[in-house]
Amino acid sequence: MKKFVCLLTALVFAATMFAGCGSQGSAESDDGKIQIKVQYLCGRMNLDLESVLEEKFPNVDIVTDELVGTPDYIIAKEMEYDLEPDIYLYEGLSNMDDKIIADKFYDLSREEFVNHFYLSAVSDCINEDGGLYFLPGPVYVYGIVYDKTAFQELGLAVPHSYTEFVNLLNEVKAMDLKGTEPDENDPDAKVTVDVEPFVPTVKWPDMWTFIFDSYIYDDYIKGVENALWLDKYQQGNESMIGHMEGAAEKLIKLFDDGILSPAFWEIRAPVRTAMLYRYHTSLMTIECQSALGFNEQANAETPDNLHEIGMMPFYTSDEADTDYLISMPRCYFGMTKKAAQDEAKRAAILEIFHFLSTMEGQDLMIEGGGGEINLLKESNLTDAPFYDEVRNTFQEGRVITRFYFAGNSGAVESYMHSTTLDLAAGKITIEDWLKEADRIRDEALESKPVAEEQSYGTVKETLTMEETAVVVGEAYLHATGADIGIVPCRASFGMKNKLYQGDITNSAIDTIMTTRMSVGTVSEDPKHINIVTVKITGQQLMDLLEEYKDTFVGLAGLDVVYDPSGPEGERYRSIRYKGKEIGPEDEFIAASVKGAVRTLPIVRSYDELVFRDMFIGYLDSLGGEISGAPQSLKIVK
């Protein structure tokens, strides 16, 4: 909703490309293909995307890089040192500062493929300068999920307006329906309860916004004037006084009309899920398309209990075209300006983005096949009856993305959520409620950046991931006194990031330690890892490297010559210990994460060794400075 007027002019969707960008020689792989680096959030990208893109675009070589640890910190450091990739596939792009986005990303607003998306889908991507620097990937779409089987059995009609929805709630209440649920005090016993017409959970602010945003959108956010007001408000240049009084009144009216209840502030998501799908003691809730899976899971062992379900939109008034769905994007994709400076690479990426702006490209973008829906005009809604009542809403583009009154901080929303019950009960006047929202908005905008983190040392030059792995292994050796350290460069049982030039803060340390390194730990602290020492022979080390042949393994305490261009299993040209090539019978004590050396006999388990503390101790032993790449590692260029 930023700079909506700029949006109307920028999204003319002309088919021309930007001209006049600097042209340089394209980065090429060994076979002459254009090399394009795609960085994606761990667990988000469909791993088939790389092979599909290379098959569809035979002139490119796609190199993927997984963001693990603390992505925002990593991206900030990449941009600080001009190390950004060619493409980001990351849901956090929408939360980044508009000025950084405009400085680092290529403007897509003139590209023809942008016209493939609904205008409402790209409006949230518009920068404050009117540019369009990234586009949405697949989304979760939230609406009101209802029990179609119960509706048919009870002779209930699906509503198609606000008044009809309110009348439906009253109709169900008048029926005085009863159902059974497990007794909280005796799981083997049943208790009789009222069947409720509508039971959402608004225990947390993000769930509250689904209701608030959808019901006030049409009158207070939609349209040029409202969008300009929101943009100015988010910058601290407008007040809710004089604009949002009616929105507050509508929120109160939701209580008067039976759509909201104080009880919903205490309902946890699993409870309302069980009520609708398992016990059939409610007829409706708020959920996304994952409801289909939840319904089947709840009745996996009792298929006769399975009811058919469907989704309807939020009907916010009795006027036509005031039905809405709320979307939550799973990722965004954008091209960096650094990549766009290369004319051939820019052209190749724009071809890829054209593909990602089609149904096939969108469906390939997310790992796991979670039933995500794309926001293209050519919708991928299936023919499943579940979507019957929302097809028109979706196809006409009334799918809105949640907006935030104080940028993406959610500060105002948290305040409104926590005080809605007081507002509805008359304990807070509308004027005071809105004034306090203004104050919290101002406070959020004026809040000082988090105090600069303590520095425990410095890195003189940015290390590669491989060099960082060896440094992490050296920290293991310092803490345990082992002969060698073993650090696979993968998220499970190892690390996937690098040490960047500059201060070594908590964020820098936590970034090179992924949370998956805590596998097998006895502590619940995610910053705690289970370091062990094990007995290992030269032959067992070779076997371990073969097990991890698809990745680099940092070996501390050893002199290594590594050839990344060699075939898998043959990339370690030389591994020496104290000047001598290791042999199969040589024996060592090795330090590593338990999961990485799980088949070897443990000498000692350092259950209370916290990685951050261990690494700080290692830095102290170096005088607080890592001067450069480890001398023990030679990578063949």
Give an account of the 3D structure.
There is one protein chain. A hairpin with a 2-residue loop joins strand 21 and strand 22 (580-581). 42% of the residues are buried. It contains 22 helices and 26 strands. It is α+β, with helices and mostly antiparallel strands.
What is the number of E strands? 26
Residue runs with pLDDT of under 50 for 5 or more positions: 1-25, 514-528
How far is the first residue's CA from the last residue's CA? 48 Å
Class from secondary-structure proportions: alpha+beta
Helical residues, percent: 25-40%
What is this structure's SSE topology?
Elements: H1 4-10, E1 34-41, H2 48-56, E2 60-67, H3 71-80, E3 87-89, H4 98-104, H5 119-123, E4 135-136, E5 139-147, H6 148-154, H7 162-175, E6 178-183, E7 186-194, H8 205-220, H9 224-234, H10 245-256, H11 269-278, E8 284-287, H12 291-298, E9 309-312, E10 314-315, E11 323-329, E12 332-335, H13 337-340, H14 343-356, H15 359-365, H16 391-395, E13 399-401, E14 405-408, H17 411-424, H18 430-446, E15 458-459, H19 465-480, E16 484-488, E17 502-503, H20 506-512, E18 531-537, H21 538-547, E19 553-556, E20 559-562, E21 572-577, E22 580-581, E23 587-593, E24 602-606, H22 611-621, E25 625-626, E26 633-635
Parallel strand pairs: 1-2, 1-3, 11-13, 15-25, 16-23, 20-26
Antiparallel strand pairs: 3-12, 4-12, 5-8, 5-9, 5-11, 6-7, 10-11, 15-17, 16-19, 18-23, 18-24, 20-21, 21-22
Helix pairs in contact: 8-10, 8-17, 11-12, 17-18, 19-22
